[in-house]
Amino acid sequence: MTTQADSNRWTNYYQARAGRPPRPLLLNALKRFADRSATTPYQAIDLGCGEGTDTVAMLERGWQVLAIDQQAEAIVRLQGQTPLNCQPRLHTQVAAFEDLTLPSADLIYAGYSLPFCRPTHFTALWEQIVGALRSGGRFAGQIFGNRDDWAGNPHMTFHTATAARQLFSDFTFEHFSEIDEDGRAVSGPKHWHYFDVIACKK
Questions:
Q1: Which end of the chain is more exposed for a tag (fewer CB within 10 A), N or C?
Q2: What confidence tens digit (pLDDT) does each residue in 3-42 have?
Q3: pTM, two decimal places
Q4: Could you give the CA distance from residue 195 to residue 142 in angstroms, rounded to a whole number?
Q5: Rounded Cα gap, residues 60 and 105, in angstroms
Q6: How far apart are CA 30 and CA 61, in angstroms?
């Protein structure tokens, strides 16, 4: 259940991230797909779409996108910035990760969102992600590492490097890099430990 404090925290996050460019990892993943006629767009799922910047980037490149977020405010913000010509290809859903039933997709993008799945539900969510991706489809996103500052939060999910790689036994890695450094979050200084991943399903 989302509390008022949670809602306020996410509102502050959306406001801080408004106007950012699309994330480089997503653009890298999109470039790996062959051109396709606009009459048969690729299908993407944006898990934890946030303020919507990355969803709009996919829409503007001709993709059809199902954008999912637990916060209704995120969907409202996304819809407000979606160009009129892209709106027919946008579908949205307000749902928590543990309540999802994912349709088939060519790309599942999870930009810094998967750690917010509770550990008790992560395996089921990951099985859904793997099952929803078509052969030749891709996952792009971040898996958070066990040395991250937030790793002590029992409501979030973290992996060692070995465990992160083991998630992708049905995939071929196209990009896998480990980030382990001090930096900043919207909330202030933070040590980041995560894995940037682009992987193609076999």
A1: N
A2: 655 667 777 777 867 778 999 999 999 999 998 766 789 9
A3: 0.93
A4: 5
A5: 18
A6: 9
